[in-house]
Amino acid sequence: MDAAAPPRLDPDPPSGRFQRFRRRLDFLYHADHPTAVRFQGWIAIVDLVVIAFFVMAPVLEEKRYFLWLDYSLAALLLLDFSARALAAPSLKAWARRPVIWVDALILLTLLLPAMFFNVGFLRILRLWTLSRKDVLWRPLRRRGWQKWEEAGRAVINLLTCLFLATGFIYTAFVREGSGIEGYIDALYFTVATMTTTGFGDVTLPGPAGKLTSVVIMIVGISLFVRLAQTVFRPYKVFFRCPACALERHEPDAVHCKACGHILAIPDAGGD
Predict the structure, then answer these.
(1) Is the torsion defined by CA of 186, 192, 195, 196 positive or negative?
(2) What mean pLDDT is predicted for residues 39-51?
(3) Rounded to 5 degrees, what are φ and ψ at 96?
(4) Fewest beta carbons within 10 Å, which of 30, 31, 91, 97?
(5) pTM value > 0.70
(6) pLDDT at 3
């Protein structure tokens, strides 16, 4: 009697192809290889186009082609969102990240613009989520320009706050007789308030307007101070102390100023 023939194995089972596809996405989204960096760069360019649309949305919303642009960008962001979910090693850990919550909210405002019209100004938070991507800062780190990375993050935080406040004011306060007739007026008021210039030619009506102005002034001053600190404070290198995890040290530091552990900071000027 002949021995039973061994079972034939699928040389390329569906689960295996799916896992390879996930690994490929993980490589493209997270690796430091030139191919992956190019891919991440193109994704960042798409993000910038999307952010430009968000900034211009209050001006374009009356145009006939606005919804076409809205849904086209929604499809693009949904594809990117799904790909990042597949690329994540742990879906649960990925879903707990605040950046993902922000992106999910932005996606909802694009998929359901009529339902989420009043919170559409939150879309500019995409600028903040873009600043969390390493592809923007990796070239600066390679050249030892971490100081400019901090300054760049501070500028992005300031711009995000500026356009977020402008969008809120445009949505909540622009109406006939309010003194703010359009998006330009809202932007002008926000800049004047954040810089504490206070020309007084444009003001927000009622107690809610005054409270909004107070919040914008406090947040604006804080962000301007943060930006000034990153630009003008003494330069420090980024080197993680193996004992206490302090990351900022003077370039010639021998001991960690927090715990006294001996450091071995590489010489950035050496070959």
Answers:
(1) negative
(2) 86
(3) -85, -5
(4) 91
(5) no
(6) 52
